[in-house]
Specification:
The chain is mainly beta. The chain has helices spanning about 55-60, 135, 145, 190-200, and strands at about 1-5, 15-20, 25, 30-35, 40, 50, 70-75, 80, 85-90, 95, 100-105, 120-130, 130, 150-160, 170-175, 175-185, 210, 220, 225-230, 235-244. The strands form 4 sheets. It has a 7-stranded mixed β-sheet with strand order 7-6-17-11-12-14-8, covered by helices on one side. Strands 4-3-2-1-5 form a 5-stranded antiparallel β-sheet, with no helix packed on it. A 5-stranded mixed β-sheet has the order 9-20-19-15-16, with no helix packed on it.
């Protein structure tokens, strides 16, 4: 079973085991229907480290080169949102979706070797790297493009590493229409390589998140859209967007 963080009807924040078959979560000796709780992001990261152009076809559709080392940028904690939340789209900006497998770090990590980097992974979740292209294409540090409030929906659960295949399918749908459909087998840099590169420069803390890049098929999000992101072995993240 996967782990789920949630706020119960009494307002207490809990972490429990999610049963997909019954759509229920069990914690502290009680079982709750998921519809009766507030599903929270599966972790509370101090930072989200993101990877750009980690799929060749996505780099191609952006008319950009595939980097010779991982292209890194950050999303701050204010960008994190949960399953069922609504992301406010910046006014008068062209915004796109980016379906991604997200790595959740389980221990403090610095200078990891690729050979044992996965030992630092607590599990995997699902993310949408919501991106304001209007400003991203103008700036070099991507603060306006990537760091706005709610720009990183995560969830709904944390899957253990053994539950997620190396060639996990990644799919995104908007209002029921499939926009992105690919697999992590098409990574330019795999998870161990990403963790080794990132921790060579900065310390990852427990609960920090690494977004592994998005496949081709990114497209515009508009007011009122319903977004579904699914990663094989993890589950399905759902959220909406609305124009601020």
């Amino acid at each position: 079973m996967h782990q789920m963080r949630f706020r119960d009807p009494a307002g207490a924040v809990r972490t429990g085991e999610y049963d997909e078959e019954s759509d229920a979560v069990t914690a502290a000796g009680r079982t709750y229907d998921v519809d009766d709780v507030d599903v929270l992001p599966p972790c509370e990261p101090s930072k989200v480290v993101c990877v750009g152009r980690n799929y060749v076809k996505h780099a191609d559709e952006r008319d950009e080169d595939v980097p010779d080392r991982p292209l890194l940028f950050l999303k701050p904690p204010n960008a994190v949102a949960g399953h069922g939340d609504t992301t406010p789209l910046p006014a008068d900006r062209y915004v796109e979706h980016e379906a991604e497998l997200a790595v959740v770090v389980g221990e403090q990590a610095r200078n990891l070797d690729e050979a044992d980097a996965l030992d630092a992974v607590a599990g995997y979740t699902v993310a949408n790297d919501v991106s304001n292209r209007t400003d991203q294409d103008r700036e070099q540090n991507w603060v306006r493009g990537k760091a706005f409030d709610g720009a990183c929906p995560l969830g709904p659960v944390l899957a253990t590493p053994d539950e997620v295949p190396e060639d996990a399918a990644v799919e995104l749908r908007v209002n029921g229409e499939t926009r992105q459909s690919s697999s992590t087998e098409h990574f330019v840099f795999d998870v161990p390589a990403l963790l080794a590169e990132i921790t060579g420069y900065l310390t990852l803390e427990p609960g920090d998140v690494v977004l592994t890049g998005t496949p081709e098929g990114v497209d515009e999000l508009t007011d009122g859209d319903s977004v579904t992101v699914e990663v094989e072995g993890v589950g399905t993240l759902e959220h909406t967007v609305e124009r601020a």
